[in-house]
Amino acid sequence: MATFRRGLDAEDRICTKLEGFGCRIQRDQRLDHKHKLDFVITNYIDNPNFYSLGVQITTKLDMFDKQEEFLRANQSSRVTTKALYLELSDKVDLDDGGALGVLAAILEFQFNRTYANLKIAAARIYDDLTYQFYDLMARVKQLRERVEEKQWKLETASTQFSIREKAPAGSGAPGLAIVGTPGAPVAVTVTSHRENISGMIDSYVRQGGHGIIQGEGETRYFFHISHVSDDGLREQLNAIPYSTNPARLYVAVEFWNAGFTKPGARYPEAHNVRARS
Known about the structure:
By secondary structure, the protein is an alpha+beta fold. It has six helices and 13 strands.
């Protein structure tokens, strides 16, 4: 059974099938590399009119970087009148109805008045050859948020606190970080760089009381609520709904770089965190 596969062979196969149905197709490297289009349909079955619908077909489902690249390449492009991002289940068989499903989705986007004023669309063809259109921009945003949340959890997984003592107010000392299980703490020496650094709180988990600050350049810092010396900022963080999911804040702050306070820490810690005026 010849199923849809990745690469040029797959593109050749689907183009051959569509041409067999009476479609006229244009292909070249410029369309592929610059505009992320595998081919452009210029005429349809027994229809003498000229059309210009670019298509990218893929079996890589929910690849937001690939989808985002397609959006960027075609949103302002005048190379084609319309552009369709088409996902196929890896089990779709082009020789057993799959090519007809591809043609049906293409014709739907071209001739259904629902999509008359829509330049870019996306659809997925399932194993049973049914298909469904979806909002590509909304899907990219949703998938990006999922990836960022997963990455955030990985970033903070190695920087959890079980016990932490805060330095006495006004002492000027960064404090002692005690990391480990209760009853058997391990003291870790803190080397503090007390010059103020500017950054932005990227995300914060209310349940754990910890978050990530995007510092200057590419450096990211871990902080705990006990490191916040600004009463107003602490109140703002404590007002976030209690949840294990990270909340996105983007609050401008300044802080000290306390360095890496535990073996294997992914990020240095931010201490004396204050809202930046």
